[in-house]
What we know:
Number of strands: 5
Distance between the termini: 20 Å
Order of helices and strands: EHEHEHEHE
Radius of gyration: 13 Å
Amino acid sequence: MRILIVEDDRQTALFISKGLRQEGFAVDSASNGKDGLHLVLTESYDAAVIDIMLPEMDGLALIDEMRRKRSEVPVIVLSAKSSVDDRIKGLQAGGDDYLVKPFAFSN
């Protein structure tokens, strides 16, 4: 499986990529919303993990644009924002699930 990570925090992106690679996934990453949108619309991905607070295009706008362009790539919204309203916004934008930072991989 090939997964796209769109995360502007380098340490978080490396942590997620390392964990997914250890589980056998192929991983690409982008550090801003515009690059993430370009990748998801031009490459083939089985899933995407997208942060909400991104430079150049926020994650909600990225997901909304993906859905407007008919991309059906499943999206996990990743955010430090944990309120119910924030989760609803992420899912209404087209996210399939919502993961709150911080998080950990199981051993």
